[in-house]
Write the structure tokens for this entry.
Amino acid sequence: MKSRFCWLLVASLLFHNPAQAADWSYCVAPADAENRIYVSMPFVSVGPRAESDFDDALAKRRLRHDAVECARADDEATAVIMRQQAIAVNRTWGRLVIDLRWPPPS
């Protein structure tokens, strides 16, 4: 686990590009009663409304879930790495990971 963390840290530093101005995010919403988690694809951050927008999208699809959280990264590559780590951890915990193709409203 320690070597994986080191690899993720090195990869995020290598892919970090300070010239990119946009923040990136991805959202997750666990559904503990069903032992699953919904995960969005990374997207250019839309600010604090991302959590409520993702929550609304899940509700419209009638997907029961717990609290939504959206992680923020300085660039797309870091958001991808963070998302992959979140998926790996949740699979380790035995959760079914459901990848949602959810674009936040622009």
About this structure: Residues 1-14, 16-20 have pLDDT under 50 and may be disordered.
